[in-house]
Amino acid sequence: MKKSKGPLILHTVFWFLVLLIIGMVLFFDSEPRTLKDYLLSFGVMGVINVSIFYINYIILIPEFIKKSKKYRLFIISFILLIAAATLIKTVIAVLNPEELLKYKMDGKVGEFSVNMYAVNTVFSNGFFLVSSSIISFVIDWFATERIQRNLESERREMELQFLKSQLNPHFLFNSLNNIYSLAYQKSDKTADAIMKLSEIMRYMIYESNTPTVSLSKEVDYLKSYIELQKIRFKDGAYVEMTLSGEIDDQKIVPLMLISFVENAFKHGVVTDPSEPVKIDIIANQKILHFSVINKKNNQNKDAQGGVGLPNVERRLQLIYPDRYKLNVVNSATHYNCELMIDI
After folding, report:
1. In a 3-state reduction of DSSP, which class is residue 112?
2. In sequence order, which ranges of 232-332 are alpha helices (DSSP H)?
3. pLDDT, tens digit, for every residue of 116-141?
């Protein structure tokens, strides 16, 4: 897994802001400073601030919070670290009062008491320790969110692959049954049916492995499937497919529509010229409207059911969450599937 640059960016931004504040203080400070002033105020004290920041970030938080969950020990260590840093800074200030305890304002010389300096130091130390804690928790939160997103993405991909692996054998099983019937009847259409199945399987194996395909290719796949199904009906199969809109310009997840058409052939009446299977595909302004209406064959009951439509609905939930609407009307005489997708 590629390592995130977020922690480095967050640390860089924090220290940039600290240096920016220090720069602004120096810019607006009209009183001259000696080299020793700079070394003590921003050098030595800066090293102490950076040290306590990363002692907390690298040692205290990982050891007492992330690993052992010893929150009380963390709080004690946190307070002790502030106290130790305050003591060190105060000792340095007492040893160098001219540079650290005295100040000039409007030409007048003032002096901090040791107690006041120590109190101010407690707050500055606390600022760096709290800041390191916040940054650590923010980074962990984003890392956890990133891991969760990756795991969810992997889970969805695995589930989609599983659903797709169900769909292909399901289609193949039905098609082979149809071809077996033709072969058993020694029909002259057997060779044509095998050729059509070969073309369909080529699409399923080689072209449907991408996340999306052209809607026109998916439509061509549906047409090939319909032609394959027509071959096995001696009295003819009647299907009316209407296409309109931007069919060539839209994309769709492959093998998303086939189960609706397959269901019409499997459970419907397709040999009645007065009531053909009607398939409408409209693609306009990123909206795909797809519908299949067929007359029901009440004598054709599939005791085992099928994975087709439940499979498709699950794929829709995973790929187009809150972007699709599926309406199935199962009346006494007709079956109507209507699907709208924001593609």
Report:
1. coil
2. 258-267, 308-319
3. 889 999 999 999 999 999 999 999 88
Cα distances from 305 to residues 101, 171, 187, 208, 267, in angstroms, run 86, 13, 28, 25, 10
Q: What is the CA radius of gyration of the chain?
A: 36
CA distance 79 to 185: 89
For the record, the structure tokens of 222 come out as 């549906």
Q: Is 279 or 175 the better-scoring residue by pLDDT?
A: 279
Residue 188 carries which DSSP code?
Answer: T
- Three-class SS state of 17: helix
Question: Which own/partner pairs from 172-181 qualify as long-range (CB within 8 Å, at least 24 positions apart)?
Answer: 172/201, 174/262, 174/266, 175/200, 175/228, 178/228, 178/229, 178/232, 179/232, 181/232
The number of CA neighbours under 13 Å toward the Cβ of 301 is 3
- DSSP secondary-structure letter at 59? I
Parallel, antiparallel, or unpaired for β 251-252 and 213-214? antiparallel
Average pLDDT, the chain: 83
Share of the chain above pLDDT 70, in %: 86
* pLDDT tens for each residue of 244-272: 988 888 888 888 898 899 888 888 899 89
